[in-house]
Amino acid sequence: MTIRVMLVDDQALLRTGFRMVLAAQPDMEVVAEAGDGVQALEVLRGTQVDVILMDVRMPHLDGVETTRRICEGGQKEGAPKVLILTTFDLDEYAFSALKAGASGFMLKDVPPAELLGAIRAVRSGDAVVAPSTTRRLLDRFTPMLPAASAESERPELARLTDREREVLLLVAQGLSNGEIAARLVLSEATVKTHVGRILTKLGLRDRVQAVVLAYETGLVRAGGTAGA
Distance (Å, rounded) from C-alpha 32 to C-alpha 47? Predict the structure, then answer.
């Protein structure tokens, strides 16, 4: 099945470069482009898109607010996934975009093969493109969040089984499904099932939002260690 991609960046030259890379793939098609968030939202009203490559720093409406508006429908069937493209690693704008609902982020100078793999991963629902990088981003900017409040403020956490909570903690520490499976002596398919149930119970779009929630509630602290 062809992955329908939208490019959102205020630099036309960068969009051209990304379009050339994607056009060479038999399973991808660039179906839309936009130079800022306002234009992107307008285009999306009439275009079916699977994955959006989103810049963060743009005029009129930046990528963070654009991502929030796109993702505010939660896990609505058929909603596009947003992959943030940043110029600098550990960009505070990227952190805000993850909180807004983006499924992951990458640097703009990423090798083509990694970008293509990221698009396919996001489309398939794997979401976290680089768990360790996402964790480093959260470790850097979690101190900027309001103090973690008691878990009682998120009563849905109580719906998790002991095993699901264990899996959530490992997801938040940046482990992939395969690494979690090895740590807990489970099959990778079983881990994937647990992750799916966690997302459903907590009403989250994907793994990235699960990681953000774990940090915000104090389940894990900066550095990826389990909270008290």
Answer: 8
